[in-house]
Design goal:
Layout lengths: L1 H18 L4 E7 L2 E7 L4 E6 L2 E11 L2 E6 L7 E8 L4 E9 L2 H7 L3 E4 L2
Antiparallel strand pairs: 1-2, 1-8, 2-3, 3-4, 4-5, 5-6, 6-7, 7-8
């Protein structure tokens, strides 16, 4: 019985920790310069350039597939594959589909580094 409970606990912990891989602050570079991308537990995000908000919206992340909707392109969902590397403290976004041209050009092949 103990083994079954322990196995169930491990499966539940693994399920929650893999979905939380993005939560926290990440840093990247693009035409804006250096920016911080903050993923929150409530599935909202915010991009800061310097200390000023630039873009915000909502996201989901399941089985390496990342979907995003931001307030710059309302009602347009972007879909990306995320590949983690470097002990999961770095990741790359690969465009799958996105009808928001500005977001797609900024996010495709973007590399982020975990800050905290």
């Amino acid at each position: 019985m103990k083994a079954i409970c322990l196995a169930a606990f491990a499966i539940i912990c693994f399920a929650f920790t893999t979905n939380d891989k993005l939560i926290g602050t990440w840093q990247g570079y693009n035409s804006w310069g250096k920016y911080n991308l903050i993923f929150k537990k409530d599935n909202s995000f915010e991009i800061l350039v310097g200390d000023k908000p630039r873009v915000s919206g909502v996201y989901s992340f399941t089985d390496s597939i990342f979907t995003i909707e931001d307030y710059g392109c309302p009602n347009v969902i972007g879909k990306y594959k995320i590949t983690f590397f470097g002990n999961d403290d770095s990741c790359r976004f690969q465009l799958l589909e996105d009808g928001c041209d500005g977001r797609a050009s900024a996010a495709d092949n973007a590399v982020l580094f975990r800050v905290k």
